[in-house]
Amino acid sequence: MDQEIELKFIVEQDGVETLRTQLNALSAEHVPAAQLLNIYYETADNWLRRHDMGLRIRGHNGRYEMTMKIAGKVVGGLHSRPEYNIDLDKAELALEKLPAEVWPEGTLPPELASQVNPLFSTDFYREKWMVNHNQSRIELALDLGDVKAGSHQEPICELELELLHGQVEDILEVAEQLLSAGVLRQGSLSKAARGYHLAAGNAERVVKKADFTDPDNAALEAALAHWQYHEELWLRGNAKAKAEVLNAVEFIRASLQRDHEMASAQMAQIGDAISAATNAKDAAFKPQIAQAKLMLTAFLVTGR
Questions:
Q1: Which of 55, 243, 245, 259 has its CA 20 to 30 A from that of 131?
Q2: What are the helix (H) ranges across the chain?
Q3: C-alpha to C-alpha distances, 135 to 107, 165, 167, 168, 169, nearest whole angstrom
Q4: What is the distance between the alpha carbons of residues 137 and 133, in angstroms, rounded to a whole number?
């Protein structure tokens, strides 16, 4: 089992070349773009999803790998969850090769292998930069392509930073260096999450009322998730979502005020900047706002 730790960003589509220039300027080992095709599987009654499990086969250069991801945690755009990777001889599931600890009852359900079927796919080109920062090894992957489910599809235009080994603080530091160009925003929705939504019919996402109250870290995490969810809606054309972004930012500001006065003052500035923004794109990709979200993510993950 591996513990996957990734920080995900959405790349502004017109800013891909700007970002690539930044990445090429790093002291890094460059890996040219290669196509990755992924098929995600599910049962008719969503058994895997209901158990917070994700199952896929990835194909690359005639080689295949089966991956099972199980319950993890997302803070801001930082994803941390266990994953199990099994090499395959061909693009066919082999659930019996997964260790018993993967399964909720400690054993492979007898009928599951016959019940899982392809649900959606992702097809993208991945270009990589391998960076050493302090004592950490970090992979920066630029992914360009599509996620597809039936007649529905969405573009993939993302940058993923994966901590191969080392400290989570280092991946946050590297990310901070990339925000100044104004072409990145943290993304809490994984490719898989978007694929499941498309496969379910691609219903319009709705504005949600805030459900955070007490000014503790759990509420701050919920407020950050609320901010990111409604920022996504705002970018997709739902103007009403802007008010919920501002509600989340104000809650974060007030929660930080007693013990973190400087951070609270910064959040007040973020609220003003979002209020003044004439469109979602200007707010979402503004370096000042992107850095504030990353700062909050770092605080929630590391306590600093």
A1: 55
A2: 16-24, 47-50, 112-115, 168-177, 191-199, 217-235, 241-256, 261-276, 280-284, 287-302
A3: 38, 8, 8, 11, 11
A4: 6
Q: Assess whether 195 and 222 both reside in one domain.
A: no
Rg (CA), the chain: 20
Number of domains in the chain: 2
**CATH code of the domain containing 30:** 2.40.320.10
Q: In this structure, what are the phi and psi dihedrals at residue 288, rounded to the nearest 5 degrees?
A: -60, -40
Residue 282 structure tokens: 């200007």
d(C-alpha 300, C-alpha 55), whole Å: 29
The C-alpha atoms of residue 196 and residue 217 are separated, in whole angstroms, by 29
Residue pair 215/187 in contact by the 8 Å Cβ criterion: no
Q: Which two tokens stand for residue 300?
A: 């929630």
Q: What is the pLDDT along the chain (304 residues), one digit of tens a residue?
A: 667 789 999 999 999 999 999 999 999 999 999 999 999 999 999 999 999 999 999 999 889 999 999 887 778 778 788 899 999 999 999 999 999 999 998 999 999 999 999 999 999 999 999 999 999 999 999 999 999 999 999 999 999 999 999 999 999 999 999 999 999 999 878 898 899 999 999 999 999 988 877 767 889 999 999 999 999 999 999 999 999 999 999 999 999 988 899 999 999 999 999 999 999 999 999 999 999 999 999 998 887 7
Find the domain containing 245 and state its range.
208-302
CB 120 within 8 A of CB 198: yes
**Six token digits for residue 72:** 């993890």
Q: Encoding tokens for residue 171?
A: 């991946």
Q: Which amino acid is at 191?
A: K
Dihedral sign for Cα 177, 180, 182, 186, please: positive
